[in-house]
Amino acid sequence: MAVPAPGIWGLVIGVACSIAILLSALLLLLDRIAANLALRWARRSTRRSGRRLHAGSGMTRKQGAPAATVAPARPSPAQAQTRLADQRRATGRLEPFRLR
To answer: Which of 24, 100, 15, 70 is nearest to 6 (CA)?
Structure first.
């Protein structure tokens, strides 16, 4: 039994597939190396920032720590109407020449 020769197109296709396989393996290797470096870089930066934030063993409580900031209560509709009426009256006294 004779093995047929692949011909020129068979060789071109074989070489192209071999190059594609080698290229994908190289890219996979580079991706793993880059991921490893990124993880090391992240760990390194968190370790450094952790050292800077350390308060030490001599921490004490602050005297008179500030209270939590709370938004002021909204006025009720009746209070808002009263305030608006007071403002209109005060404006009316300041501008006597204004036509109503």
So the answer is: 15
Could you write out the DSSP letters of every residue in 24-61?
A: HHHHHHHHHHHHHHHHHHHHHHHHHHHHHT---TT--P
79-99 pLDDT, tens digit per residue, is 888 988 888 887 766 665 555
CB 75 within 8 A of CB 83: yes
State both tokens at 4.
């047929």
The answer to whether the predicted template modeling score (pTM) of the entire model surpasses 0.85 is: no
* pLDDT score at 91: 73
Compute the distance between CA of residue 84 and CA of residue 61 in angstroms, rounded to an integer: 46
Q: Contact at 8 Å (CB) between 98 and 92?
A: yes
**Mean pLDDT: which of 7-11, 52-56, 59-63 is highest?**
7-11
